[in-house]
Amino acid sequence: VQLQAFGGGLVQAGVSLRLSCAASGHSFSSYAMSWFRQVPGKEREFVAHISRSNDNTFYADSVVGRFTISRDNAKNTVWLQMNNLKPEDTAVYFCAAAVGAYRIKRPGDYRYWGQGTQVTVSS
After folding, report:
1. pLDDT digits (tens, 9 = 90+) for 50-104
2. Quick one: how far is CA 29 from the chain centroid?
3. Which of 8, 13, 11, 10 is nearest to 123 (CA)?
4. Are 93 and 117 in contact (CB under 8 A)?
């Protein structure tokens, strides 16, 4: 499967942004999906996760109550709605797909990655 993330941009603190991740190929519903983010010089950081069947979500403590992950398996798309953005949310955001057994927060357990989309939040 190929993943393409888009929707990033330069915004002011407090506003909202929605990232999209479109998957090509087949069997999108068989992939658990997550969003990660990364800033230069730091490790890739887990942000949000959604299960294959769209019935379970999990978030990093830093985004709980502000970010919402969702997916539509019929559209082969996963979204990350980001509200009340903060300067510390500035990063490149990646979507990732996991197959089989995986640990939610472990980037190495994800098989497929999108190319990343830059989110910059100014204060």
Report:
1. 999 878 999 999 999 999 999 999 999 999 999 999 999 999 999 999 988 889 9
2. 16
3. 13
4. yes
